[in-house]
What does this fold into?
Amino acid sequence: MIEIYHLYKQYAQNEFYALKDINLIIDRGEFIFVVGPSGSGKSTLLKLLLRETLPTKGNIKIFGRDITRLKNREIPFLRRNIGMVFQDFRLLSDRNVFENVAFSLRVIGTSPREIRKRVPLTLELVGLKDKAFKNPNELSGGEQQRVCVARAIVNRPAVLLADEPTGNLDPATSMEIMTLIQDINIRGTTVIVATHAKDIVDHFQKRVVVLENNQLVSDQERGVYFNAH
It folds into this structure.
C-alpha cells in the first residue's frame, strides 16, 4: 500500500539530510511505530507521506501511485484518503466539536445530510458523543486529542498518520488515545505513529521502525523501543 524507495530529504542545499536512503514497505492494515531521537526525521517522513513537502530524491508510492509526481490539483484527492493527527491538536477555537469534525467533510464537498449523519457516528466512536456542542477550550487535553482523531477519521481514510499524538498528554490519557487508534486500525485503517513514548511502543508490541542519524537502522515485527537501539 505504501512503498518508499531510496528516499532522501534535504531542506536546503548544502544542509544535512533530514532523511537518507529510506526504504520501507507498509502493507494495507498494518500498524507501525516510527521511533527515534528528536531530529531523526520522523516528522519529515510523515510530511512526505502527506505530500506537504517533496523529497530531494527517491520515490513514494501510495495506492500504487508515485505521489512525488502528483499535480497540485491531485493532492487533495490523495489527502482524502489520509487522516492526520497532530501533537498540538490544531483545532478551530471559534467552532464547537461538531463543527471541527465536520470541517474535514465540508472542505471535500460532502453533503450537509451526510455530515449530519457521519459526524455523530464518528464522535460516538471516539467517546465524545455528549460533547458535540462544547468548544475545544471546554475540553481536557485528552478530549481535544479525541476530537483530532475524529476529525482525521471522519472521511474514513485508508491511512491514519499520527505525529507524537500523546506528546502533550499524561500517561493514562496517552494510553486511552493509543487504544483508540489501535481500535481504528482493527477496523482496517493502516496506521503510522511517530512517537518518543517508550512505554506505549513497548505496551502495544506493533511493528517498530527506528530512525537514527536520519537513516532507517531497524525494522522489527512486534518490536519494542528498548531493543531498537
Observations:
- The first helix runs from residue 42 to 49.
- The mean pLDDT is 92.
- The beta strands are 2-9, 19-26, 31-35, 57-62, 65-66, 82-85, 159-163, 190-194, 207-212, 215-220.
